[in-house]
C-alpha cells in the first residue's frame, strides 16, 4: 500500500513526538511492505514566526493532498500575548474547519502495567476499554445568536444550541459502525428529560440503531454518565454524544487511566483526510529535553493505520509493541510514578520500534535493563 | 430558638429517612434548648394518590409558612406511567419554583472510615472537603426558544442558554459568602473560551470578588474541572457554576467519596424558606425494609441548622455524631462494602441520636458490638 501522510509537528514537544510516530510508521512500512510518503507542513506558533499565520495556505494544501494528517501539538508562552487571530490555537480550529472534521474519537484503554498511575482503584479501572465519539462542529459552541442582549432593563446574554438532524445522524452512524467492530454496544448520552435537542438526538439514535440490529443501544443522561465514568467505567464500549457533553465527558474520561500522555485521538472528516493527534498539549516546559512521552502520538499513528488505511494488523502490532515496552518497565517521566529510572523520548521510540520489528531483538535489548 | 420546619416525606425511603432527621432535630432541640415545630405536607406519588396533584396547594402553604423545609425523596414505579403533569418529579420542580430556590449547595466530604467505599485511591480522596454551588433557575434548561425548526429543508432543533446579569450576581455572591466562612477560595467554572454567557459569568465573578478581598477567585474551564475533580479534588473549597455545568459536575463529584447515601444538599431561596434534602432518590426497592441510609437526610438537617438558623455549633454536633458512629463501624448496606454486619435504618438513627445526646452513653452502647 502507498499512502501520503501530512505531518504537522507544531510547537513544543510536538516535534519530538511526531518524529517518534513517523519512525514507527516507517518501521511498519518496512515490516509490512508499504510505502508511506511524509510531507511536512507548518502550524501554530512556529508557523506564525515563519509566515505570519498560524495555518498557512501551503499547510492546508499539503493536508488536502494527503491520505491522512498527523499532528503534534501547538502553542507556548512565546505566543500567549498575541491578538486572538494570531494565536497558535487558531491554527487548530482552522484546520478542523478546513478539513471538515465532524467527529472526534478518543479511545480510553487501561494498561495493567500502569495501574499505579490511575487515581482509581485497580478493581474499578482494570480492563477498561471504551471509546468516546464526540460531535465536533455543532451545538452550543457554534450556534447563533451568541451575544449580549438587554432584558428588563438589565444586561443579559444568550448562547444557542443548534443542530440539524443530518449532523446528528452522521455521527451516530459513525458510532454504530465503530461499535459493530468492537463490543457491539452504544451508549448515547443526552439530557432528554430537559432539552429538546436531546429529545431529537435520542429519536435519531433510535432510528440509526434500526440499521444495526446486532448493536445494543442504551440511552444515558449526561449527569448520570459523569457519575458512571467513575463508578463503573467497564460498562462502556462506545459512548456517543453531542459537542459540549463530549467535551466535558472526554476530558473527564482522559484522567481515569492516569496517563494523559498515552492517549491518542482521531478526528474524522466528512470527506478527505482524517486528522490524528495525541490529546496532550505542547508542554513547553519539557520541550526539546528528550523527556516527552511519545506514546500518545504513536498510538494516534496506530489509529491512522486502522481508521484511514484499514490496516488492522499493522495497527494492532504497533499497540502490541507499546504494551511490550511498558510491560518491560520502560517509563517516561509522566508515567514513572516514583520509579527512579526514567526512559527518554528517543529511547522509548527506539524500543517500541525494536519491539515492532523483532520481538526477539527486544528481549535482548531489554536484558540490559534487567 | 423557636422555628417551624415543614417536612415533606415523599415516597419510598423518603418516609424513613425524614423520620430519622426529625428525631435528630428533636434531640438537638432537647440538648440545646430550642423548640422545633414540625408540620407535615404531602408531595410526590403519595400526594397524587391522595389529592390528584404531586404538589397540593396545602403543601405549598405549609412550606411558605415555615422557616425551613425538609424533603425526603419522591417517585416510584407505581407512578412511572402517569402523564407528565402527574409524575411525582413534577412536585419537585414545582416546589423549587414556588419557593424561588435559585441555588443548590452540595458539600462533598471525605470520611476516613469510608475510604474503602470510594472508587478513588485513598491518597487522592482523603481530606477532600469542598462545596458545589449550582445555579438552579436559569441557563440552557429553561431558555426559550426550545423547539424543532426547519433549516435548509430539513429538521433541526434549537435550545437556548439565557441568563440575566442579576441571576449570575446573586449566586456568585452566595458562593463568596460561603467561601468567607470556609477556606476562602472560589473556583468559578465556565467555558469562557467559547461561550458568550461564560464570558459574562467570568466578568461578573470578577466584579463580585472585589467585595471579598480575603477570598481568592480562580477561573476554571468546565472540561478541565471535570478532570480536576478526579485528579486533584483536594484543591477545591467552593466551586460555583451555572445550571447545566453544575448538574454534570455535582453528580460527578457525588461519586468520588463512594457514599451517595451520605450526601446532603441545600437549595437556597431568594426570599422565604430554604429546602434541605438528601441527594439520593426514593429507592423503592428497599423502601419500608428498614435498610435505607438516613445519614444524607440527617446531614441535610445539619445544613438546615447552619444555613437557615445560624446554629453552627448544633450543626457541627450533628456532623460529629455521624462521624462517631461511622468510626465505631456502623454501616447501612449501601456503605457496608462487604462488611457482614449491617446496621438498620432505625438502629443507625438511634445511635446517632445517642451520640449526639451523650458521648459517654454511646461508648457503652457500642461496647455491645465489640
Ligand atoms: Mg476539552
Ligand atoms: Mg443531575
Task: Describe the 3D structure.
Two copies of one chain form a homodimer. Chain A has two domains: 1-99 and 275-370, Isopropylmalate Dehydrogenase, CATH 3.40.718; 101-271, Isopropylmalate Dehydrogenase, CATH 3.40.718. With 370 residues, the first copy, chain A, is of the alpha/beta class. In chain A, 41% of the residues lie in helices and 23% in strands. In chain A, helix 10 packs antiparallel against helix 11 (312-327). In chain A, the strands form two sheets. In chain A, strands 2-1-3-12-11-4-5-10-8-9 form a ten-stranded mixed β-sheet, with helices on both faces. Chain A has a two-stranded antiparallel ribbon with strand order 6-7. The model of chain A has no long low-confidence stretch (mean pLDDT 95). Chains A and B meet through strand 6, strand 7, helix 7, helix 8 and helix 9 of A and strand 6, strand 7, helix 7, helix 8 and helix 9 of B. The complex binds magnesium ion (2 copies). Residues 247, 251 of chain A line the site of one magnesium ion.
Amino acid at each position: 500500500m502507498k499512502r501520503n501522510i501530512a505531518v504537522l509537528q507544531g510547537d513544543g514537544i510536538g516535534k519530538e513526538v511526531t518524529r517518534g510516530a513517523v519512525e514507527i510508521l516507517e518501521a511498519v512500512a518496512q515490516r509490512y511492505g508499504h510505502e508511506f510518503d511524509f510531507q511536512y507542513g507548518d502550524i501554530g506558533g512556529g508557523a506564525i514566526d515563519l509566515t505570519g499565520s498560524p495555518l498557512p495556505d501551503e499547510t492546508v494544501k499539503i493536508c488536502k493532498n494527503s491520505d491522512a494528517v498527523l499532528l503534534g501539538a501547538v502553542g507556548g508562552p512565546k505566543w500567549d500575548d498575541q491578538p486572538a487571530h494570531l494565536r497558535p490555537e487558531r491554527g487548530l480550529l482552522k484546520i478542523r474547519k478546513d478539513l471538515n472534521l465532524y467527529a472526534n474519537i478518543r479511545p480510553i484503554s487501561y494498561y495493567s502495567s500502569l495501574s499505579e498511575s490511575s487515581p482509581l482503584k485497580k478493581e474499578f479501572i482494570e480492563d477498561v476499554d471504551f471509546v468516546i465519539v464526540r460531535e465536533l462542529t455543532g451545538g452550543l459552541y457554534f450556534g447563533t445568536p451568541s451575544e449580549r442582549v438587554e432584558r428588563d432593563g438589565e444586561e443579559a446574554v444568550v448562547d444557542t444550541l443548534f443542530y440539524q438532524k443530518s449532523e446528528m445522524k452522521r455521527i451516530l452512524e459513525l458510532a454504530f459502525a465503530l461499535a459493530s467492530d468492537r463490543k457491539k454496544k452504544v451508549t448515547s448520552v443526552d439530557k432528554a428529560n430537559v432539552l429538546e435537542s436531546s429529545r431529537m438526538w435520542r429519536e435519531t439514535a433510535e432510528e440509526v440503531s434500526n440499521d444495526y440490529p446486532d448493536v445494543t443501544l442504551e440511552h444515558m443522561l449526561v449527569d448520570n454518565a459523569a457519575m458512571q465514568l467513575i463508578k463503573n467505567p467497564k460498562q462502556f464500549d462506545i459512548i456517543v454524544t453531542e459537542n459540549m457533553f463530549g467535551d466535558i465527558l472526554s476530558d473527564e474520561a482522559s484522567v481515569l487511566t492516569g496517563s494523559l500522555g498515552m492517549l491518542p485521538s482521531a478526528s474524522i472528516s466528512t470527506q478527505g483526510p482524517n486528522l490524528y493527534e495525541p490529546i496532550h498539549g505542547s508542554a513547553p516546559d519539557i520541550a526539546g529535553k528528550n523527556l516527552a512521552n511519545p506514546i500518545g502520538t504513536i498510538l494516534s499513528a496506530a489509529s491512522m493505520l486502522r481508521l484511514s488505511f484499514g490496516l488492522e494488523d499493522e495497527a494492532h502490532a504497533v499497540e502490541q509493541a507499546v504494551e511490550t515496552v511498558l510491560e518491560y518497565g520502560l517509563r517516561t517521566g509522566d508515567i514513572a510514578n516514583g520509579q527512579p529510572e526514567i526512559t527518554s523520548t528517543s529511547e522509548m521510540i527506539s524500543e517500541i520500534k525494536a519491539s515492532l520489528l523483532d520481538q526477539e531483538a527486544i528481549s535482548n535489548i531489554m536484558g540490559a535493563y534487567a
